[in-house]
Amino acid sequence: MPPNHPRPLSRRALILRAAAVAASALPACRKKPAAAPAPPPWFLTPLAPPPDWSSLDPFQDSLTRDAFTQLLNSTLTATPGSWFTHIQITDAAALIRRASRDASLPPYSLRFAASSASLPKPESRFWRKASELPPLSNPAKPLADLRIAIDPGHIGGPWARMEERWYRMGDASPVQEGNLTLATATALRPLLESMGAHVDLVRSSNDPLTPLRPPDLLETARLSLQQDGTAITDRALRRESERLFYRTAEIRERGRRVNTILKPDLVLCLHFNADSWGGDPANPRFSSANHLHVLAHGCLLPGELTLDDQRLESLKRIIQGIPESELALCNAVARRMAEATSLPAYRYPGNSARPVADNPFVWIRNLLANRVYECPVVFLEPYVMNNADVFARIQAGDYENSREVAGITRPSIFREYASGIAAGLADYFRAARSSV
Ligand SMILES: [Zn+2]
After folding, report:
1. Measured in angstroms, how far is the CA atom of residue 149 from the centroid of ligand 1?
2. Coil, strand or helix: which one is 262?
3. Model-level pTM?
4. For 31, 190, 330, 434, which has the most beta carbons within 10 A of its beta carbon?
5. What are the residue ranges spanned by the domains of the chain?
6. E strands present in 165-324
7. How far is the CA of 154 from the centre of ligand 1 (A)?
8. Percent with pLDDT over 70 in the chain
9. In the CATH hierarchy, which fold is given to the domain comprising 130-209+253-432?
């Protein structure tokens, strides 16, 4: 079905959509009554809920001053210390600015633990560290008792062109990232289950999870363009409302499902990378590039740290101790992905991502999809979809065992991708869990 003609919604979906619109409307976009109250103090990313700083309350006394400061420097911002503008460290607590538009609001005070012995209680977060899982009794099942959510990136299918995750080379089948990630998830699930994991797919079709659609988001799009200082034209409004639908609203809905329903110990975000294919996706350019990288969360740029929702979401991850587990998982998976794919490491230009020590495949970057999930996330970006070799492998589709594709005998690209992840998780949990 073409993207501009979404299928009719059921009554339940309409109710959900109305509720979501009401819940997500920014205070700033409400019509002001005659006696207008003061404007909200929050400075927010579009569709983000106003920050609830009390959500940090369960994590009071969780980290020592040194551990907290070290995490701020090593992960939160692009350069160590650039968080000073919003967080003040005293001996007893971190004083965190709550609202970027109102300096008079008292800061949120996050007390430090007296010693590293007083760690957060497991019941204050839904995910478990490897050390908190039951000891392993069967070496063949290193993922026993582990809950894993696989998030196949993007939506795909009829939405792939709108998402700009679609190209077609001649008469060949179109390449659609959202379909490739779902095929990889389908190959990965049985591998993880065979090692004892309980696995959920965050999505299992090419239907959006959010009940919102671009026409619902025109007013939010107008505000978003204003906030960015972008000229408001019909075309800009349409593109922004589409982006808010397929990226922002969709990822926020996935975050809600992960955090409130699935509650996994870790999320695997599956993606395929792409290089510029020129202006016409029906007549694209091939790229000679092909590479791999894996992302952990962090590296907020100054403008992102100023957004109250992003500051809170990022600190909530830090205070739960997510970065430590997440980086270790990313390292283990990246090593095995490099082995499985033989791809070189990607290097980010500029300062939107920061490298980590000892692993050229792992980078730290602030994405909505690794920030809103309140548990460790391994965000994978292997293969350049418009590389000629990758294109040939995608056209070959999924198959068992090995087959010659573009002159090389090898597994299907989906099974190769899945095998690298599975081996990396097996390495990590074998080493990090105790045995009976
Ligand atoms: Zn992607």
Report:
1. 17
2. helix
3. 0.90
4. 330
5. 130-209+253-432
6. 166-167, 175-176, 198-201, 266-270, 292-296
7. 6
8. 90
9. Aminopeptidase (3.40.630)
